Structure of Methyltransferase type 11:
Amino acid sequence: MTEQRTKAGRDAVHHPLFARFYARVSVLADAKGGVGELRRELLDGLSGRVVEVGAGNGLNFAYYPAAVSEVVAIEPERVLRRLAVEEGLRAGVPVDVVPGTAEALPVKSEAFDGAVASLVLCSVRDVRRSLAELRRVLKPGGELRFLEHGRARGRVPAAVQRGLDATVWPRLFGGCHTARDPLAEMEAAGFEIVTCRRLRLPERGVPLPSSPAVVGVARRPASGIA
């Protein structure tokens, strides 16, 4: 499969400095901040074929249960994709890391039993289109496992998030937006929220606009228009 590129000949997503920063911080957060246990919770009980969007540096791979027969991991950023390939080789389940974007998944419709979106909906360019793609590639009744940060519940924190999103935050953090509402977006895309737990991502004593988060399970309805 050839690497997706823009008309200018560059990668569809290109944030090499942020990618290196994220790779270091995410490893520390897993080891010392408890994010590894969130990954375990996120993936527990999955089986069959799974597609993971925005796989990053592949830290989820170690937590996939043995009942998963294959993981197709989509990652558009070259630096992170290279790291994900290395993690995939160490995983306990078969992992195929491929280039692509969440808005145009390079896989067939209704081909997967499960899908995973882990800290990725904040940075995709088109949330609705990305979720429509996930719904397309899931089998009817298939599960979408999500761990996403998003909009704060208080009026003032939410206003701060919107201000940051309109100014410096996306430019500093690889296109990340803090004020998106992943639950509302999933429901608008036709997913049914099965379980959901609200939490705060590890913030090492300093409240961050990206700390409010949700983890849970959504489902593509077993019948109806795809």
Notes: The chain has seven helices and seven strands. Strands lie at 48-53, 68-74, 95-98, 112-118, 138-149, 192-200, 212-219.
